[in-house]
Amino acid sequence: MPEPQTNTPWWREAVVYQVYIRSFRDGDGDGNGDIAGLRSRLAYLADLGVDAIWVNPWYPSPMADGGYDVADFRDIAPMFGTLAEAEALIAEAHDVGLRVLLDIVPNHTSDQHPWFRAALAAGPGSRDRDRYIFRPGTGADGAAPPNDWRSVFGGEAWTRVIEPDGSPGEWYLHLFAPEQPDLNWDDPRTRREFEDILRFWFDRGADGFRIDVAHSLIKQEDLPDLGDRFGLLPSIDHPHWDRDEVHDVYKGWRRIADGYDPPRVFVAEAWLDDPERMARYVRSDELHTTFNFVFLIAPWRADAIRTAVARSLAEQNAVGAPVVWVLSNHDVARHVSRFARDQAELAGFSLDDIMDRPADLELGLRRARAAALLMLALPGSVYLYQGEELGLPEVEDLPPEHLTDPTWRRSGNTVRGRDGCRVPLPWSGDAPPFGFSTNDDATPWLPQPAGWHERTVEVLDGDPDSILTLYRAALHLRRELPALGDGELAWLDVGGGVLAFTRAPGFACVVNFGSSAVELPVDGRVLLGSDPRVGEGLLAPHAALWLHTTG
Ligand code: GLC
Hints:
Shape: globular
Bound molecules: alpha-D-glucopyranose
Helix content: 25-40%
Largest sheet: 8 strands, parallel, barrel
């Protein structure tokens, strides 16, 4: 790895590129992205100017939930490659200066995991069942579930099993799909197993992990009913989200990560809307960072964004942690499409929240360009979701027969779910698969819109005004400018739908959220602008500027 230029730990200011591997690039011609495809594009990522990649789950999996149903945490799915290829990828990424974060899924396994198969076979009361959360049913003959918990994907969070003797038996908990039984984290064997999985990948050079639903592991012992407290964003003292005991798990993980040279790192996926509760995950002896979903779910309005940014900075900085800014990922509608909607109120973050509202995609793209400059100028670390550098919109009209998200099935085909942000990337050419595959005749696992010939890497690369050129310029400047990355910001009180802040030394970022041009509230030389039509001393509507200031 190249030597760091400052004493700041890399993860405090890293820009991490999220690779949804099945949709990044297909290196063996079967229409599914894979490790070979990712290896063939490491140079693209290094040139883009990111510091690290995070690879979504690539483990053997029946793919009931896009690979978040893991059957073996210590191997690679044949669809994606081999363990030897994974090791080669990590080494090659390091050679071009990219660190590699993997995805660990500790809340549940696949129902095809050997532990769950053994639990089913062993029957009630066995040690094997204790690895999961099995309970007798309620009501006559135990035919009703143990409590009223609901699956995030719709329906009950419990499924009843047939016992080895053929009789209807116990129920097991699954906060997600039935193919994803929840593990019992009160069992020391679960704790030992995951610590061992961490070491397995750290020993192979992985630089860290993104922790899937990091706030869900511990359940209140008596599994009380939820009543009206169902939802993705938890209340305080919720029986299965954000229990205090989860922090003991992460203190143990931190000790393991710190035992490596260089120390390995973690980023938590914890959907909490309370920055104070989020900050608890990143106390100095716990995880390093946690995604900032408060920023992600804020509507694109000066007041809402300023509140989200200011609160997040205050809470995370109070425990000495950097904020991790993120606009999109594989679970939410792409932000070009969210920002294409009226932002008067919370626009919602899933396709199903927004699709009925009128969309202006050109406006969405302008706002997305401004948002990129805003986000990359904020203090802390940033995660980019593959394709946002191409300005890809959500694919809102995937034919129903292609939808794979468990939400679609479990909602009785009413909630479309997350496939629309997972469509394979367009790299080059005029027709699908747009260079996504080494095989021009391959059928990508999700169909790409015909109009994406305008959004390929090949087309945008050659255009000085494209969003790809903007991202690349911003990422390279971010590395060069001492003011950016870790540190602090100072707000300028300008009002009127404009946000402005400075960072020392000599930097200002100004964002115009309004629909008419405004005078620049701060003097300086323009370093970069999201709208190439910006006039002297003026900032275009829906645009952002980076300035070199002398103050
Ligand atoms: C996380 C993942 C999501 C997955 C869920 C269950 O939220 O990001 O894709 O469906 O966990 O593992």
